[in-house]
Amino acid sequence: MTTLIKLEIVRALRNKKFMFFSVIYPPALYLIIAGGADSTPIPGMKLNMGLYFMVSMAAFGAMTAVLLGNSERIAKEREKGWVRQLRLTALPGRGYVAAKMAAAATVSLPSIVLVMLAAALVKGVRLEAWQWLAIAAGTWLGSFVFAALGVAIGYLATGDAVRPIAMLIYFGLAFLGGLWMPLTILPQWVQDIAEWLPTHAYTALGTAVEAGGAPHVKDIALLAGYLVLFAGGAAWLYRKDTRKA
């Protein structure tokens, strides 16, 4: 399992096209969205747009790497027979899922850091040292939830269908979770749905720290629950695919 994790990380880092969209795209998008934002507080929140979108775009960038990248690669690997070769080894389902999650999370870290650098250098965001570290750590650790979801989608969909399915889930979770705009300015029914979505809990980790507090226990518990659900489902689909073969 350790060997596979190393191989997956190296392969992900060598994919220049994937690295560009996963690492450069999120900070560029942050500067476009938050570029003209001022320091006026968001209605119903203590944060301004520059602070809010720093966390949401860091989360969005991490999701790009771990969800879209993971699902498409796995679906293509299944079609090419690579996963069939892995099934001939003693690698357990949890080992395969762990390797894919580790590789995806490795790529998501530079994206998170670059968004935060753009916020500090271009938008003038100023936080305490512990807040920068806590936001980076929380956003990176939270990305494992969506890495597991990406593995599950890669086993649910075929190579031709995986992209539209992953994109639908990706953008749906991003919008309903408040990554594109603060939930306080969206309809109440969207806010009610968002309360139980992993994307809302994911960004809430960083926004709580930005406001000077600690992440809420509910958000941490919700992410932990989704991680168990997605990782368990991905491992089950891997074993199911093995029995089918």
Automatic annotation (TrEMBL):
Compartment(s): Membrane
Alphabetic keyword roster: Antibiotic resistance, Membrane, Transmembrane, Transmembrane helix
Residue ranges crossing the lipid bilayer per the database entry: 18-37, 49-68, 97-120, 132-156, 168-190, 220-238
ABC-2 type transporter transmembrane domain boundaries: 51-234
InterPro entries: ABC2_TM, ABC_2_transport, T7SS_ABC-Transporter
Mode of membrane association: Multi-pass membrane protein
Pfam family, one: ABC2_membrane_3
PANTHER family: TRANSPORT PERMEASE YVFS-RELATED
Protein name (database record): ABC transporter permease
Species in which this protein is naturally found: Streptomyces siderophoricus
